[in-house]
């Protein structure tokens, strides 16, 4: 098919069409999830457009505030948070929002309330904004537990209870990756149509990969199993090839590459940060959910990441996620260390 004809194809699987198809498999569904998702997708398109013109629209640089984690907020962090909070509330389908940028959870007023709880990192990879490197948005969705009034316990649930999770990467293209618990699918934004098109159906992570991804600048403070694992990646003793190191410093981009090419992404504990850096609810859980759905694994150094039960909304955890066999090696090193103790 030539390019001109291709431009007029109407059989493209847009994300809306895809989610409506999924919805039709559940005759009892009233379309609430589809509506919620369409608001998240709209938020991502908005942020994508802001990211693309950030340098021109004076959107780079600091906003002048620090968030609850003590991190300086960038203008795009603040703008993206506003976009998602408004998009999620106006969906009329949410009851609690947890954002990296807000100290407290937002409880939606009863008149605009639905039964979904959304946890999100509105802009991930903030340190990469000003140099134009890939950044993203991460989200996870829970259903409110029983009862009429939402409480914090509705979001302090293990990651395995999530109904859906995903991310949008603002990179050389804008890519939306989603799992509703039945595999992982990737969509690419066609800017001329303003629609996300299914480009990566049923993503499966390779069983073993050739890449490891970690901030090695923290190596002097790592625990023994992490140090041993990275040493093994570089100097394997079993005759296999060394792994290559790739580290972008935006979780969304590092995880996206890991998902497509295989390998492992780790943000381990270290002596200075015994719980690691990444936040359980809106970074570790959604990415772990996607990894498992794609056939990989996610491990904290102690347990399956999705079994964690967070005690507070901004809790952190070490994380090792990626190809099944690669994470299995990390698990074996932690098990051996535990035996010694
Ligand atoms: O600079 P470091 O310590 O390697 O940390 C990188 C990590 O920090 C993060 O940027 C934290 O996310 P935010 O930008 O949303 O705070 C992750 O995206 C990334 O994996
Ligand atoms: Mg982040
Ligand atoms: Mg962020």
Automatic annotation (TrEMBL):
Question: Residues in domain Fructose-1-6-bisphosphatase class 1 C-terminal?
Answer: 205-334
Which cellular component appears as one GO term in the record?
A: cytosol
Provide the Fructose-1-6-bisphosphatase class I N-terminal domain boundaries.
13-201
The protein's GO terms of the molecular function aspect are:
fructose 1,6-bisphosphate 1-phosphatase activity; metal ion binding
Q: Which Gene3D superfamilies match?
A: 3.40.190.80, Fructose-1,6-Bisphosphatase, subunit A, domain 1 (3.30.540.10)
Q: Which InterPro entries match?
A: FBPase_C_dom, FBPase_class-1, FBPase_N, FBPtase, Fructose_bisphosphatase_AS
What this protein needs as a cofactor is: Mg(2+)
Which keywords label this protein? Carbohydrate metabolism, Cytoplasm, Hydrolase, Magnesium, Metal-binding
- Catalytic function, reaction form: beta-D-fructose 1,6-bisphosphate + H2O = beta-D-fructose 6-phosphate + phosphate
List the subcellular locations: Cytoplasm
Q: Which GO terms describe its biological process?
A: fructose 1,6-bisphosphate metabolic process; fructose 6-phosphate metabolic process; fructose metabolic process; gluconeogenesis; photosynthesis; sucrose biosynthetic process
| The keyword Hydrolase is annotated on this UniProt entry | yes
The protein's Enzyme Commission number: 3.1.3.11
UniProt family annotation: Belongs to the FBPase class 1 family.
Q: Which PANTHER family match?
A: FRUCTOSE-1,6-BISPHOSPHATASE, CYTOSOLIC, FRUCTOSE-1,6-BISPHOSPHATASE-RELATED
According to UniProt, the name of this protein is Fructose-1,6-bisphosphatase, cytosolic
């Amino acid at each position: 098919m030539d390019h001109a004809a291709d431009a007029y194809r109407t059989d493209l699987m847009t994300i809306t069409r895809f989610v409506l198809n999924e919805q039709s498999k559940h005759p009892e569904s009233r379309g609430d999830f589809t509506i919620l998702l369409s608001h998240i997708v709209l938020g991502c398109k908005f942020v994508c457009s802001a990211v693309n013109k950030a340098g021109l629209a004076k959107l780079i640089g600091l906003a002048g505030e620090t968030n609850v984690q003590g991190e300086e907020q960038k203008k795009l962090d603040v703008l993206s948070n506003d976009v998602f909070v408004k998009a999620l509330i106006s969906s009329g389908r949410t009851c609690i929002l947890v954002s990296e940028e807000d100290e407290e959870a937002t409880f939606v007023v009863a008149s605009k309330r639905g039964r979904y709880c959304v946890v999100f990192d509105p802009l991930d990879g903030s340190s990469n904004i000003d140099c134009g490197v890939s950044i993203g948005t991460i989200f996870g969705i829970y259903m409110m537990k029983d009862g009429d009034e939402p409480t914090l316990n509705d979001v302090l649930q293990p990651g395995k209870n999530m109904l859906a999770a995903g991310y949008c990467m603002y990179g050389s293209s804008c890519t939306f990756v989603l799992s509703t618990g039945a595999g992982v699918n990737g969509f690419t934004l066609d800017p001329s149509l303003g629609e996300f098109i299914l480009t990566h159906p049923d993503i499966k992570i390779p069983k073993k990969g050739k890449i490891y991804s970690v901030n090695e600048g923290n190596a002097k403070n790592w625990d023994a199993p992490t140090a041993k694992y990275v040493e093994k990646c570089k100097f394997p003793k079993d005759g296999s090839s060394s792994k290559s190191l790739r580290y972008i410093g935006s979780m969304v981009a590092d995880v996206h590459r890991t998902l497509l090419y295989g390998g492992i992404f780790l943000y381990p504990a270290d002596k200075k940060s015994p719980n690691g850096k990444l936040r359980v609810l809106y970074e570790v859980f959604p990415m772990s959910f996607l990894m498992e759905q794609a056939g990989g694994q996610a491990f904290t150094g102690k347990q399956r990441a999705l079994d964690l039960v967070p005690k507070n909304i901004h809790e952190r955890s070490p994380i090792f996620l990626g190809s099944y066999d690669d994470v299995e090696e990390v698990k074996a090193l932690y098990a051996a260390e535990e035996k010694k103790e």
